Amino acid sequence: MDKMTEVKADIEYKIEVEDKSFVLDKKKYNLLNNINTSESITDAAKLTGISYRTALNHIYKIETVLGINIVNTKKGGSGGGGKTTLTEEGFSILKECKKINAITELHKDVNEVEAIVKDIDKSKKIMIISINDKITINIPLKEEFAVGDKVLALISYDNIFLIVEPCNSSIRNVIKGTIAEMKMDNQTICVKIDIGGVYLFSDITVSAEKDLDLELGKEIYIGFKAMSVATLKA
Known about the structure:
alpha+beta; CATH 2.40.50.100; elongated
């Protein structure tokens, strides 16, 4: 597809504790994050845009499903001064959510390519998928896939390398193409490459663009590791 995939605003976070799991939406994540910074459920609820009762319900559901305590409330003396903090388990959940945020932000621009599984090599644990019956890509084997299955291959912009000449390396996928477009975005240049009627995008630095002497119409090779390709059944 000749477009980027936007990251959805309503990211969900699947949290697993032993044999139990719970899916947090963005609002529940914000609640935990605000409790961590404000040390108050009342203030955290206001910052999250929910009522105090709703905040308590969210906490109760998470704790009940996972079977752990995620907050610890200490009452103040006669003058008040109580506070609510995340327990060690609660902070671990928040940290995992932040990791997901960081990874999502890093790979927010994704190429989507429709393909078909052409071959499966179980001994090497790889699959070969074909784009337009012309271009083949090596990807890790997925047991649920079979030859002939239609798949959607996802490759983030920053996982695609531009190469002037192919060389020996650990990169399994090297494809020849032509630069169709270059667009500046802050200090990054988004390069659109035509690989035979299919367009892939790569984000590179300004210095890399100068070193490679890139220009519209120039023939170039793109490369990406097999492990950098995520696949879904189409």
